[in-house]
Amino acid sequence: MKQTEKTLIEQMKISEFEIAQRKLLFSLTSEDIMLLKVSKPLIDRNIDFIVKRFYELQTEIPEISLLIGDADTLQRLAHAQRKYVVDLFSGLYDIEYVNNRLRIGLVHKRIGVEPKLYLSAIYTLKSLLNQVIRDNIQDQEQRVRTLNALEKLMYFDITLVFDTYIRSLVTEIEIEKEKSDQYAQDLEEKIKERTNQLEVMSRTDPLTGLLNVRHLTDTLTSVLRAAQRRSEPVCFAYIDINDLKKVNDTKGHQSGDEILKNFAETIRIVSRAEDSCFRYGGDEFCIILPNCGSANAIEIYKKRLEDEIQKRSGFVSYSIGVIQTGPQDFLDPEELIHQADDLMYHQKEQAKIKLQASEVLELRQKK
Ligand SMILES: Nc1nc2c(ncn2[C@@H]2O[C@H](COP(=O)(O)OP(=O)(O)OP(=O)(O)O)[C@@H](O)[C@H]2O)c(=O)[nH]1
């Protein structure tokens, strides 16, 4: 249920029982109530004087005068004060009476009437009422008991006003706390998001979007451990683009970049979700192929790679070295990388020798 759907009395959890308890707390008896009720005609006769004098005294205090602000507000307040004085001597201090007192605390908090100003106003009002009672009730015993009853009722009222005033303060603090909790939560989420972005950035090669070499050894170590537990083979492929320097020198560095990006995309497309693709650096790439033997790596993976190259860019020449480790004995990550690199280099040399031989043959045939 929304706060605005509850009355102030409900919000403050003040029941008939609670009102009776509070009356008991101040020894506000039915005899007191009777005495106040009996004084009603006397107060009614003097009400204009009481309210007028009350505001004369109140507006002499600069702080209060400033708070009241203008003649219309003063008139509205005087009207409310008149009603309060009448209520004080109504003899009816029920739920509605309590609700009106509770509302005062709320309004005071809202418009910034400090407790000291409220208490001084109550003191002024009580002095004026006491004066009227003293001047007009001849019977000494009745006069003393009426003054006493009025004092008890005004204390009863003050507690109600303070209850809502304090509750308003607490609510304000709770709202601020909620706001700052929300702010802290938002901040935490932003930091988490930013940390994730930074982590992804720290793991990614900016040109190709593949993983960078920083995490190669760690990834390889955990893949090898998992493979060891499951007795599965792992293949490691080391790839180097051929003659990238020539491309850079003849077509420009940007063309070289395009080749690297295109090749990285090709690797990504042909790899499975469980494969990890790295740009090792420069024009070198590595792929970890878990649960894959070298026959599959060469017959299936390499074939898919070549098909995709054909499909995408036509031609890019590369050298590749694929080393299988496991499922029984496993090389350590450094050795695996080293062997794959060696094999790639050997294949590159072989290809160069083959190319040179075919160029010599071509030249001879031309002659
Ligand atoms: N465009 C471009 N070129 C790069 C980048 N990183 C490295 N290179 C170039 O790639 C070339 C790699 O050199 P090598 O692998 O020694 O030589 P290569 O020309 O590929 O010849 P082989 O490897 O012997 O086939 C160098 O010329 C580097 O400048 C890059 O991010 N962008």
TrEMBL record:
Per its UniProt entry, what is the enzyme's top EC class, as one word?
Answer: transferase
UniProt-listed Enzyme Commission number(s)? 2.7.7.65
Keyword annotations for this protein, in alphabetical order, are: Coiled coil, Nucleotidyltransferase, Transferase
Instruction: Name the InterPro entries for this protein.
Output: Diguanylate_Cyclase, GGDEF_dom, Globin-like_sf, Globin-sensor_dom, Globin/Proto, Nucleotide_cyclase, Rev_trsase/Diguanyl_cyclase
Query: Which GO molecular function, any one, fits this protein according to its record?
Result: diguanylate cyclase activity
Q: Can the keyword Signal be found in this entry's annotation?
A: no
Per its UniProt entry, which superkingdom is the organism in? Bacteria
Span of domain GGDEF = 232-360
This enzyme catalyses: 2 GTP = 3',3'-c-di-GMP + 2 diphosphate
Coiled coil in keyword set: yes
> Which Gene3D superfamilies does the protein's record reference?
3.30.70.270, Globins
NCBIfam families documented for this protein: GGDEF
**PANTHER family in UniProt:** DIGUANYLATE CYCLASE DGCM-RELATED, REGULATORY COMPONENTS OF SENSORY TRANSDUCTION SYSTEM
Its protein name is: Diguanylate cyclase DosC
Q: In which organism is this protein found?
A: Litoribrevibacter euphylliae
